[in-house]
Amino acid sequence: MALERTFSIIKPDATRRNLxxxxxxxxxxxxxxxxxxxxxxxxxEQAGEFYSVHKERPFFGELCEFMASAPIVAQVLEGExxxxxxxxxxxxxxPADAAAGTIRAEFAESVGENSVHGSDAPETAAxxxxxxxxxxxxxx
Length: 140
Ligand code: UDP
Ligand code: MG
Description:
The chain has helices at 12-16, 20-29, 44-50, 60-67, 82-90, 103-107, 122-132, and strands at 3-10, 33-40, 72-80, 116-118. The chain is α+β, with helices and mostly antiparallel strands. A 4-stranded antiparallel beta sheet has the order 2-3-1-4, with helices on both faces.
């Protein structure tokens, strides 16, 4: 398996409940390394651009409002097979379906307020990393 980088967000429901450390620990325990990280507060417009792939979905407005409701932690995770591994550690979108021990099983509040985002493919990982970080901010 190749060394990969993926994009991750700790979402507002988790920053609000002071869970960033516990969530980062899950990634680190799985062998993923944080190679870039920042805490930011998205505007509705920025949230909408990030999630533009979902703009026709019925939950889009609510999703943007949620993502702009409190700070997020944007991060780049690196490791062997990092894209799939991150998705595995996150668990299923709906916490009711998430496997035991995953971040969403332990921390998510609902299908919308589900604590983390993770890129789903190499192309989206590259686009999402570039949306949030400059090359200078990827420090390894
Ligand atoms: N979402 C939602 N309702 C749904 C499905 C998704 O509010 O029925 C939100 C949820 O926050 C999810 C995000 O939209 O994480 C993006 O959806 P996606 O299907 O890409 O799930 P993910 O890749 O985050 O598991
Ligand atoms: Mg997705």
